[in-house]
TrEMBL record:
Residues 415-803 form the Topo IA-type catalytic domain. Residues 42-69, 70-96, 97-124, 125-152, 154-176 form the C3H1-type domain. It catalyses: ATP-independent breakage of single-stranded DNA, followed by passage and rejoining. Residues 585-595 have a biased composition (Basic and acidic residues). GO terms for cellular component: nucleus. Introduces a single-strand break via transesterification at a target site in duplex DNA. Releases the supercoiling and torsional tension of DNA introduced during the DNA replication and transcription by transiently cleaving and rejoining one strand of the DNA duplex. The scissile phosphodiester is attacked by the catalytic tyrosine of the enzyme, resulting in the formation of a DNA-(5'-phosphotyrosyl)-enzyme intermediate and the expulsion of a 3'-OH DNA strand. InterPro entries: Topo_IA, Topo_IA_2, Topo_IA_cen, Topo_IA_cen_sub1, Topo_IA_cen_sub3, Topo_IA_core_domain, Topo_IA_DNA-bd_dom, TOPRIM_dom. Residues 213-227 form the CCHC-type domain. This is DNA topoisomerase. Belongs to the type IA topoisomerase family. SUPFAM superfamilies: CCCH zinc finger (SSF90229), Prokaryotic type I DNA topoisomerase (SSF56712), Retrovirus zinc finger-like domains (SSF57756). The gene is TOP3B.
Length: 1053
C-alpha cells in the first residue's frame, strides 16, 4: 500500500500524509520513545514554545523544533562549521539556498568573481523602495532622495476609474492622497513594536571543556585567550607561538600549478578562481618544515613585468633615436588585462613563506624576482630577532611526483645574478632595437613608397637570422652550374635486369668519358668479382627537446615554429604492449640543461579530442617518445662489384633485420632493396647496354625553417624559446616569404637590401659575432664573475658607436634602396587636398598607409589595418586639411581622421595618433566633445564611448580607447545626441528615431539606465569584453564617467 503524499505549499517542505496509512515504526516511537505523532498538526506547532520564549531546558533532547519564526536567513558561520551558539543562534542552521545571506562582494562592488558563490546576489537597486511623493507627482528631495524615482507614463484606464491589469500594469497609477507616514508616526510605531517584542534571555555560558580554539585547535580556552598567540615583549623578544603557517607556491604556468598541487597534496587539493581570469588557486593542508601549514598554489603567465621607456620617450618625432641609449628604462605590467600583479599581491597578503616554482633557467630566475617584487611588500615579516629567510626556490626539471617532492624537500634560494643577467639582456635589446628601428624606419619610409612594411626593424638576433637567409639567396644567385657526365650499364643475370652505376662517379671531362664508353661497347659479358654483406644499424632518437621539435614539426608536418610553440592511442596499442612485454631501455644521449624536461606526452588522446595541427603535433611527439624507448634499426647492406672489361660497376641494397623504432617513426623507415636473383662471386651476366648520361650541378635550395633553426643553434642566435619568435618576426616584417610544402624561406627585396646595406656600412651588424660577445658577457653576470652595471655600460657604448657610424653612413644603404624601390613622389594616387598648398595629396595603399604631398614634400601616416576613403570633402576647422574616413568594416569601428592632426596634434599633452574621435576641439562636429556619450565600461580602459555618425544608416557606438563596438538594430533611422545628461549616471542622452515602417515613436533617454534604449543595441556593450550580461558599469565606473563629463562637457556649456 502506498501512502498519498501531497505538498501543501510548492515552496514548503511540509508533507501531509494520508491518515489511513500506518508505518511499522510508529508503535515504537509512541511506546518506547514516548513521542506523539500528530498528522493533523500545523507546521507552526512543531516549534518549541519554551524556546520561543528564550530558553528550553531539554536542549537537544527536545522533541520540538528549536527555531524562531523570525529566523529567515541561514547562519554564515554555521555554513563553515564555526557557529558557537548552537541551537540558540538567531539564524537558521539548515542548508537552504533560498535563505542564504546576501553576498558581501556583490552588495559592495556590484559583481562577484566566484562562479560557485552560494550567497544571494541581490541587485542593490531592487532593495530601494518606490518614493511615494514622486509617484504622486513631486519629490522635494529631488536626486538626493534615497528612494527610487521611476518615471512612468500615466495609465489612461486608471485615470478613467479602473485598470483591469491592477498591480501588473507597466504604466503609472498615480495616487493623489498625501502620504501620511511622517517621521513622528514612524517613531511611534517603532516604539510600540519594541514593547511588544518578546524579551530574550541570555543563554547560559558553555563549559570551557566544550570550547575549541580555532588558532591552535586545542580545547579549554577561547581564541582571544590562546596562550600561543603572537605576543612580543618590550625587549623585542618573541614568545613561543603555535600557529598554522601560510605558504604560497607560485609556478610559471596555470597547468604547472595544478600539477604541483595535485602531487604535493596527493590529489586532496581544493581549487578556486583567483582575481586573474587565467590563474586559479589550489589549496591544501600539510607540513612545512615540520610545522602545520596551509598551502596555496597559483601561477603567473610568463613574465609579470615588461621593460619599456617612460611615456614621454614614446614619440618618434620629438625624441632622437640616439638619445634612447641614455634613457632610464622602467618595468610595467606585461599584460594588464590578466591582472597578474593584483592577483599575486592579493594571494601574498599575510603569508608566512613564498616558494617559487618557476622554470630553472635564467628567464625563470628573472620571473622569480618579479614575483618577489610584487609579493614581498604585503608578506608577513619574520619575527624580530629571526634571520631565517621566508622566500624559497624549488629546483626541478620534470613534472613527476619524485622530482616535485624532492624539490620541496630541498628548497634553496633564488639566483639574483641570473635574474640580473636577464635584465641586462632585456635593456640592451630594447635600446638597441628601438634606436636602430626608429631611425631607419623614419629615414626610408619618408623617401620610398613601395616598401610594403609598416616597420623596418633591427634586432641583435633578428638581423643575423635574416642574414642567414640572404646569404643562402646570394649563394643561389652566384652559383655557376658545371656540366658532368656519368657512366652506367644495364646487364641481365638469370633473366633479371640490373642497372649499375660506375664506381668512377661523376666525370668532368666529356672526352675521357666518351672514350671509356666506346671501349666497353665490344664487351658482351659482365662478371661479379666480389660480394660483401655488412651488418649496420641506425640509432634510435634522443629525447625530444624544443629545438628538435621545432625542426621536426616544420620539416615533417609543415607547421611553422611559431605555431608549434603555441600548440600545446589506440594506433600504437599493439606495438606498445609488445614493447612492455619484452622490456625497454631508457633513452640515451642528449643534454640535460636543467631548465626543461624532455618533451613527452602526458596522457593518451584520440584524433577526435584534438583537431588540425594540434593532433598532428601530438602524434609526432608521441611517436618520437615511443621511438626513444624502442630498439635501434638493424639492417644488412649488401654490395656487389661487377666488371665489364676493366671498368668496375656496383650494385648495393639493404635488407631490414629489425625495424626497431621505425615501427612508429615511419618517416625514418628504410625499405628493402633486394635483387630477384642471388648474387655470388664469379657469376656472369650479359651486357645489354653501356650509356653515358650528361647533367649539370644545381644550386642549393633556399633554407627551410628546419635548416634555419639548425644554423641558429650552431651560431648561438637566440634560445630554444626565442628562435621561433625571431623567425616569425622576419616573416611578419615581410623580409622573407615562406614558399612550398617544404616551407622554404625566400628573402624579399626589402630583406635583401637591408642585409646588403648593413654589410656595406658595417659587416658586424649582419653577423652573429656581436651577439655572441654580448652573450658571453651576460653569462659572466649569471655566474657572478662580472658586475651587471659594468657589462651594461660596456655593451651599450659598443652599440652606441655602431649606431653613430650607421647614421653617418646611411647613404650607402640608401643607394641600394634607391635602386630597388620607387620614391614617394611617383607613388600612390590623388586622394585628398593638402591644407597647406591646397593641392591633392597622393594616397599610398601599402604598409604603412600614408598620404604624400608632392608640392610640400610632406608625408602623413594614417591608421593601419583598415580601409581609407574620402569623407564627403569635409575639412578640419584647425588646419583646413580634408578629412578621410577610417573603417574596419561593417561590424567594426569607424571615425574621421585629419591627416595633419593625426601626425601633429595641435593640443598640448596629446601624442601623435589623435583621430577626430579623440580630439577635444570644443565646437567641431566630429570631435569627442560633440559625440561622446559616457565613459567606457571596459575595466582598465580610460576611453570614452562615442557615437559613430559616419556609420549611418548603420548607427554604432564605439570606444575611442579600446575595440568595444556595438551597433543599433535594423529599423533605426537616426540617432541624435542632446545637450543634457542623465542625472543618475551622467551619461549623455540620446534621441532615437525609427523608420516609418516600424511605426514607433522616437525614444529619448540614456543607454546606460534606460532598458528600452539598451535593448536596441545589437550587442550588449559591456558583454563584449566579458562583463556580466545585462549589467552596466558599477559605481566606480559611473564615478569615472561623471568625472570625465565634469571636466569636458560641463566646461563647454
Amino acid at each position: 500500500m502506498t501512502p498519498s503524499i501531497t505538498h501543501t505549499n510548492p515552496l514548503s517542505n511540509t508533507l501531509t500524509l494520508d491518515s489511513t496509512y500506518v508505518f511499522e515504526f510508529e508503535p515504537f516511537i509512541k511506546t518506547e520513545l514516548n513521542l506523539d505523532i500528530d498528522r493533523t498538526r500545523a507546521p507552526e506547532k512543531d516549534v518549541c514554545k519554551f524556546y520561543l520564549k528564550g530558553y528550553c531546558h531539554k536542549g537537544k533532547n527536545c522533541q520540538f523544533k528549536h527555531s524562531r519564526n523570525d529566523r529567515t536567513v541561514v547562519c554564515k558561520h554555521w555554513l563553515r562549521g564555526l557557529c558557537k551558539k548552537g541551537e540558540l543562534c538567531e539564524f537558521l542552521h539548515e542548508y537552504n539556498l533560498k535563505k542564504m545571506p546576501e553576498c558581501w562582494f556583490y552588495a559592495k562592488y556590484g559583481e562577484c568573481s566566484n562562479p560557485e558563490c552560494m550567497y544571494l546576489h541581490i541587485d542593490p537597486e531592487s532593495k530601494v523602495g518606490e518614493c511615494v511623493w514622486y509617484a504622486r507627482g513631486f519629490c522635494r528631495l529631488g536626486p538626493e532622495c534615497r528612494y527610487k524615482h521611476s518615471r512612468k507614463a500615466v495609465c489612461q484606464c486608471f485615470l478613467s476609474g479602473f485598470c483591469p491589469k491592477g498591480d501588473q500594469c507597466p504604466l503609472g497609477h498615480p495616487k493623489y492622497e498625501v502620504p501620511n507616514s511622517t517621521n513622528q508616526e514612524r517613531a511611534a510605531q517603532a516604539a510600540q513594536a519594541a514593547q511588544e517584542r518578546v524579551p530574550f534571555e541570555r543563554r547560559p555560558f558553555r563549559s570551557l571543556n566544550d570550547v575549541t580554539c580555532f588558532r591552535c585547535s586545542e580545547r579549554g580556552h577561547y581564541a582571544n585567550q590562546c596562550p600561543y598567540r603572537r605576543n612580543y615583549n618590550n625587549e623585542g623578544g618573541t614568545a613561543a607561538r603555535k600557529m598554522v603557517l601560510t605558504v604560497l607556491c607560485v609556478a610559471e604556468k596555470p597547468s604547472l600549478a595544478e600539477s604541483i598541487a595535485r602531487i604535493l597534496s596527493d590529489g586532496k587539493h581544493r581549487s578556486r578562481k583567483g582575481i586573474s581570469p587565467v590563474c586559479s588557486v589550489h589549496e591544501y593542508e600539510g607540513k612545512f618544515f615540520g610545522a602545520p601549514a596551509r598551502f596555496k598554489v597559483t601561477s603567473v603567465a610568463g613574465h609579470v613585468y615588461t621593460m619599456d621607456f617612460p611615456r614621454q620617450y614614446n614619440s618618434w618625432d620629438s625624441v632622437e633615436p640616439g638619445e634612447l641609449f641614455d634613457v632610464s628604462t622602467q618595468k610595467m605590467e606585461a599584460n594588464p588585462k590578466t591582472h597578474i600583479v593584483k592577483h599575486i599581491a592579493t594571494e601574498s597578503k599575510g603569508i608566512d613563506h613564498l616558494v617559487l616554482w618557476l622554470d630553472c633557467d635564467r628567464e625563470g630566475e628573472n620571473i622569480c624576482y618579479e614575483v618577489i617584487k610584487t609579493a614581498l611588500p604585503v608578506m608577513k615579516p619574520p619575527p624580530p630577532g629571526k634571520t631565517h629567510t621566508t622566500i624559497h626556490r624549488a629546483k626541478f626539471s620534470a613534472i613527476t611526483a619524485l622530482d616535485i617532492k624532492k624539490a620541496m624537500d630541498n628548497l634553496g634560494a633564488p639566483n639574483e645574478n641570473e635574474a640580473k643577467a636577464v635584465d641586462v639582456r632585456q635593456e640592451l635589446d630594447l635600446k638597441i632595437g628601438v634606436a636602430f628601428t626608429r631611425f631607419q624606419t623614419r629615414f626610408f619610409q619618408g623617401k620610398y613608397g613601395n616598401l610594403d612594411s609598416s616597420l623596418i626593424s633591427f634586432g641583435p638576433c633578428q638581423t643575423p637570422t635574416l642574414a642567414l637567409c640572404v646569404k643562402r639567396h646570394d649563394e643561389i644567385l652566384s652559383f655557376v652550374p658545371k656540366p658532368f657526365w656519368s657512366l652506367g650499364a644495364q646487364i641481365t643475370i638469370d633473366g633479371a635486369t640490373l642497372s649499375l652505376p660506375s664506381e668512377r662517379g661523376r666525370m668532368s671531362d666529356q672526352k675521357k668519358a666518351t672514350e671509356i664508353r666506346n671501349s666497353l661497347k665490344n664487351f658482351k659479358t659482365a662478371t661479379i668479382v666480389s660480394v660483401t654483406a655488412e651488418k649496420k644499424s641506425t640509432s634510435r632518437p634522443h629525447a625530444l627537446n624544443t629545438v628538435e621539435m621545432l625542426k621536426g614539426a616544420s620539416a615533417g608536418l609543415g607547421i611553422s615554429p611559431h605555431e608549434t610553440t603555441q600548440k600545446g592511442h589506440s594506433q600504437w596499442n599493439v606495438y606498445v604492449r609488445e614493447l612492455l612485454d619484452k622490456g625497454f631501455t631508457k633513452p640515451e644521449g642528449g643534454h640535460d640543461a636543467g631548465d626543461h624536461p624532455p618533451i613527452t606526452p602526458t596522457r593518451p588522446a584520440e584524433d577526435g579530442e584534438l583537431s588540425g595541427t594540434s593532433w598532428r603535433l601530438y602524434d609526432f611527439i608521441t611517436r618520437h617518445f615511443i621511438g626513444t624507448l624502442s630498439p635501434n634499426l638493424y639492417y644488412t647492406r649488401t654490395k656487389a662489384l661487377i666488371k665489364i672489361g676493366e671498368e668496375v660497376f656496383s650494385w648495393s641494397g639493404n635488407k631490414i633485420r629489425t625495424p626497431g623504432f621505425t615501427n612508429v617513426m615511419h618517416w625514418r623507415a628504410m625499405g628493402d632493396e633486394v635483387t630477384p636473383v642471388e648474387l655470388r662471386e664469379g657469376l656472369e651476366g650479359s651486357v645489354v647496354d653501356v650509356g653515358l648520361k650528361e647533367g649539370e650541378t644545381s644550386p642549393p635550395d633556399y633554407l627551410t625553417e628546419s635548416d634555419l633553426i639548425g644554423l641558429m643553434e650552431k651560431h648561438g642566435i637566440g634560445t630554444d624559446a626565442s628562435m621561433a619568435v625571431h623567425i616569425n618576426n622576419i616573416c611578419e616584417r615581410r623580409y622573407v616569404q615562406i614558399q612550398g610544402n617544404q616551407r622554404m624561406l625566400v628573402p624579399t627585396n626589402l630583406g635583401i637590401v637591408l642585409i646588403h646595406g648593413y654589410q656595406k656600412i658595417d659587416q658586424e651588424l649582419a653577423l652573429p659575432t656581436l651577439r655572441s660577445t654580448m652573450e658571453k658577457s651576460i653569462a659572466m653576470i649569471a655566474s657572478g664573475q662580472a658586475d651587471s652595471r659594468a657589462v651594461l655600460e660596456q655593451e651599450k657604448e659598443a652599440y652606441r658607436r655602431k649606431f653613430q657610424d650607421f647614421v653617418t653612413k646611411i647613404e650607402k644603404m640608401d643607394e641600394l634602396f634607391e635602386a630597388t624601390f620607387s620614391p614617394l613622389a611617383s607613388s600612390g594616387r590623388p586622394f585628398s587636398k593638402c591644407g597647406k598648398c591646397r593641392r591633392y595629396m597622393h594616397y599610398i595603399n601599402l604598409r604603412p598607409a600614408r598620404l604624400h604631398c608632392r608640392t610640400c614634400n610632406e608625408t602623413y601616416t594614417l591608421p593601419s589595418n583598415g580601409n581609407i576613403k574620402l569623407y564627403k570633402e569635409l575639412k578640419c576647422p584647425i588646419d583646413i586639411f580634408e578629412l578621410v574616413l577610417f573603417s574596419t568594416g561593417s561590424k567594426g569601428k569607424g571615425y574621421p581622421v585629419c591627416p595633419m592632426c593625426y601626425n601633429h596634434p595641435p593640443f598640448d599633452g596629446i601624442l601623435p595618433g589623435m583621430a577626430c574621435n579623440t580630439c577635444p576641439h570644443p565646437t567641431c562636429g566630429h570631435s569627442v566633445t560633440s559625440n561622446a556619450i559616457t565613459g567606457c565600461p571596459e575595466e582598465g580602459c580610460e576611453g570614452v564611448l562615442v557615437l559613430d555618425a559616419t556609420s549611418a544608416p548603420r548607427w554604432k557606438v564605439g570606444c575611442n580607447g579600446c575595440n568595444l563596438v556595438s551597433s543599433f538594430r535594423d529599423g533605426v533611422n537616426e540617432v541624435r545626441l542632446e545637450d543634457d545628461v542623465c542625472e543618475e549616471c551622467a551619461a549623455r542622452r540620446l534621441v532615437v528615431s525609427f523608420q516609418k515602417k516600424e511605426g514607433m515613436e522616437d525614444l529619448r533617454g540614456c543607454i546606460v539606465c534606460d532598458d528600452a534604449l539598451d535593448a536596441l543595441l545589437e550587442t550588449r556593450l559591456v558583454c563584449a569584453y566579458g562583463s556580466h550580461e545585462g549589467s552596466w558599469p558599477g559605481a566606480g565606473q559611473r564615478t569615472r564617467a561623471r568625472t570625465w563629463w565634469e571636466r569636458t562637457w560641463k566646461e563647454r556649456f
